[in-house]
Design goal:
Helix content: 40-55%
Number of domains: 3
Structural class: alpha/beta
Largest sheet: 6 strands, mixed
Number of helices: 14
Number of strands: 13
Strand content: 5-15%
Length: about 500
């Protein structure tokens, strides 16, 4: 029976951390503090559950003959604390990681608390302690989820505020030029709440070139000098296993310069982490997982697309009418334009959007190539003269994309996925880039919430490939939720 390797985020468990002894002693302090905080909150939650059931009478007034004191519940309260602390520890919530997402911590709290409530309810049924109320079990679970969750949110908010002001931010150096190394650069730079600042990367070639916004600081052989010059706090090594000698020298350089290090397992280069482990008579076998976007998952995604797109069109219809009037008054031409775009599997389809440019925009494109800021394949310019006045505002908020909800309803597009290219762009794709069209293209995607047009095209493709290989309903939800602040900020929209 095969066991699928858990696929965490690239800036999370892909890196195997190794700390110095001093760092380990420091890392032990938050564990003790969190244990004390959680102990207090769990017991406070139990007291709140008791007050809700007895003094407040939630769930029905308690008859005098059935009244119990809080002290009578000491056994259940002790069980609740002990089991919940153990389950939280087993789930890994107390591991000191900057990379642990708040959503993941909240998920751990919900799962562990509900399971603890179920265990205690079963124990109470078997052992019959002196006092028990079914409502107590419900209230203590709800109260614990709220208090433990709020504590994480508050602490996380304080941490993020400190990171954004430059406090406790760590300089990170990535070593390697593979796709995984480039994706690590993207994920770290795109998540300032992690508390990391990307100094740059070291290449494997003699003269490495910059990768978009990321600077090549030298070669692996120059690591020791770069660590000292750039004052690097942490190094993430993403070299192939064949570079064993270089990795050993890097680890020595990190120890000498007092930098922490992380190693990305080389197996992640197998189709960007689609690794499956099986065994044959005790011998481990490595294979590749199937694309998660097929079968029931595909039907689930399609169902969500139809419901959300229908609601979106209904709610946005008044604003669409206003946009149509503004476009018509602003400049001559149609309100909605259609383009031939390339969809799943290279199939062309009609793609709709509000017109945000002058009528002859395509004819003027050849004259503007010198202004291109997005690389060799797609065209993006912050000061594109073809945009109309209404078009500038719509593109800043991405409202020109709203008609694509009709494409979502027709099945040509999805709410989340890689953006569909123009035919002329698709024709110059390299083979590895075409992998982004293994799935239905989307209205928003991972690169739209990671920098939008500020990213070069190769970065966009890598993020699309990561999305395809790590798809889940939770990932779609995160992208949709992150799209809202990305739209409102207007960062990278032009």
């Amino acid at each position: 029976m095969g066991v699928t390797v858990r696929q965490p985020g690239l800036a999370d468990d892909y890196a195997v951390l190794s700390r110095s002894g001093a760092a380990r002693r420091v890392a032990g302090l938050p564990l003790l503090v969190w244990l004390l905080i959680d102990t207090a909150l769990i017991n406070l939650s139990f007291v709140a559950a008791y007050v809700a059931r007895y003094p407040l009478g939630l769930g029905g007034r308690v008859a005098p003959e059935n009244w119990s004191t809080l002290h009578a519940y000491w056994q259940i309260q002790l069980w609740f604390w002990a089991f919940l602390i153990v389950l939280l520890q087993v789930e890994g919530i107390y591991r000191r990681r900057r990379q642990t997402a708040t959503f993941d911590q909240l998920g751990i709290i919900v799962r562990s608390t509900i399971l603890t409530g179920g265990i205690i309810a079963a124990l109470s049924f078997v052992l019959r302690p002196p006092s028990q109320s079914r409502f107590i079990f419900l209230y203590m679970v709800v109260a614990a989820i709220i208090t433990l969750g709020l504590a994480r949110l508050v602490v996380r908010a304080v941490q993020v505020a400190r990171y954004r002001r430059g406090f406790d931010v760590r300089n990170v150096l990535v070593v390697g030029e593979s796709n995984v190394a480039k994706m690590l650069l993207q994920r770290i730079a795109g998540n300032p709440a992690l508390g990391y600042r990307v100094a740059g990367f070291l290449g494997e070639r003699e003269t490495p070139a910059d990768f978009g916004r990321f600077r090549a600081l030298g070669t692996v052989a120059q690591a020791r000098a770069v660590l000292r010059e750039q004052r690097i706090d942490q190094v993430i090594i993403a070299l192939p296993a064949s570079a064993h000698a270089e990795i050993v020298r890097l680890l020595d350089a990190c120890k000498d310069c007092g930098a922490e290090f992380a190693i990305v397992p080389d197996m992640l280069e197998l189709s960007l982490a689609r690794v499956d482990v099986d065994n044959l008579g005790g011998i481990p076998l490595l294979g590749l997982r199937e694309n998660p976007l097929q079968g029931p998952n595909l039907w689930l995604k399609r169902g969500i697309d139809v419901v959300v797109a229908s609601l979106g069109l209904l709610l946005l219809s008044p604003f669409m009418a206003v946009a149509a009037i503004a476009i018509k008054l602003d400049s001559p031409g149609p309100v909605i334009v259609s383009q031939t775009r390339i969809g799943k599997g290279g199939r062309p389809f009609k793609f709709y959007k509000f017109r945000s440019m002058v009528q002859n925009a395509d004819a003027l494109l050849g004259e503007l190539q010198a202004q291109n800021e997005a690389g060799r394949i797609i065209f993006k310019s912050r000061h594109d003269p073809r945009r109309t006045r209404s078009g500038r505002l719509m593109r800043r908020l991405s409202f020109d994309e709203v008609p694509q909800l009709f494409n979502v309803l027709s099945g040509d597009m999805s709410l989340v996925g890689p953006r569909p290219p123009l035919a002329r762009e698709y024709d110059v794709y390299e083979d590895w880039m075409k992998g982004r069209l293994e799935v239905t293209p989307g209205l928003t995607g991972l690169w739209q919430v990671s920098g939008r047009s500020d990213l070069i095209f190769d970065e966009m493709v890598l993020l699309d490939l990561y999305y395809i290989e790590n798809w889940s309903p939770g990932l779609d939800l995160k992208i949709l939720l992150q799209t809202i602040p990305a739209l409102l900020s207007g960062r990278g929209a032009y």
